Amino acid sequence: MSRISDTFSDLERSGECAFIAYIMAGDPDPSLTPSIAKAIAQYADIIELGIPFSDPIADGKTIQAAAERALRAGMTPQQTFEIISEIRKETDTPIVVMGYYNPILHFGVERFMKKLAECGGDGIIIPDLPMEEADEVVRYAKENGINTIFLIAPTTPEDRIEKICACSSGFVYLVSLLGVTGAREAISGVAKTLIRSVVEKRPDIPPAVGFGISKPEHVREIIADGAKGVIVGSAIVRLIAEHKDEPEKMISALEEFCAELKAATRKK
């Protein structure tokens, strides 16, 4: 069992779903990321930590801007590992890294997975890496105890969903809408269909839904559809951006918002 799997099992027993909170490593400054993560970890069951990249094709304007701020601040994959080590000193909350394939390939896949494990990371999401080209990533991740989390989109065919479920570990990431990340006023209705498909094909892996979720009512809606986890990114990153020059206000706003989101994951 991994730290991620243990978390989902514990939540299932307590009648809760996982709240997975995304932040960008190094945004607005590398020195602040551990404090941001510590504040969020009071409420989040899993932290998703983005590695900034200059061409984040799956991300909308909010996370693109966060990546730009982090890159301007000098963030590198090596610094991300150092940040994870600092976060790990403060919390046992599972940490999943979300990074695009180019920086990982440049760093060296085997070396990357070894470093991720050494610093206390638990999982990896690579949104631009097709499953058919992921053998090396899956192999070295497995050797180092890192969960590989793949994405399923609304347009993914049924036979491909089955293959993605088979090579995923920890949880599977369901994309709730077509397009890029970003907070939305309403949630697409496709999540329920995707959740049902995953559960039918592999009932032992938790489906977690992301893209567009930004309010407690969205969280409750997704959970009612059968999700075992909800992923919130842009709404959190937007709060960080709004208070980037006032860290104390930022931490307070994040704690308040994340507490509301976590409360919505508790089944009544």
Write up this protein.
The chain has 268 residues and is an alpha/beta fold. The protein has a single domain, classed as TIM Barrel, CATH 3.20.20.70. 48% of the residues lie in helices and 13% in strands. It has a nine-stranded parallel β-sheet.
Domain tally: 1
> What profile does the largest beta sheet have?
9 strands, parallel
**Rg on CA atoms, Å:** 17 Å
CATH topology: TIM Barrel
> What low-confidence regions span 5 or more consecutive residues with pLDDT below 50?
179-186
Helix content: 40-55%
List keywords for this structure.
268 residues, alpha/beta, TIM Barrel, 48% helix, 12 helices, 9 strands
Short description, anyone?
The chain is of the alpha/beta class.
Any chance you could write out the topology, listing elements then pairs?
Elements: H1 3-13, E1 18-24, H2 33-41, E2 46-50, H3 61-72, H4 77-90, E3 95-98, H5 101-107, H6 109-119, E4 123-125, H7 135-143, E5 147-149, E6 151-152, H8 158-167, E7 172-175, H9 191-201, E8 207-210, H10 216-224, E9 229-232, H11 234-242, H12 247-263
Parallel strand pairs: 1-2, 1-9, 2-3, 3-4, 4-5, 6-7, 7-8, 8-9
Helix pairs in contact: 2-4, 2-12, 4-6, 6-7, 11-12
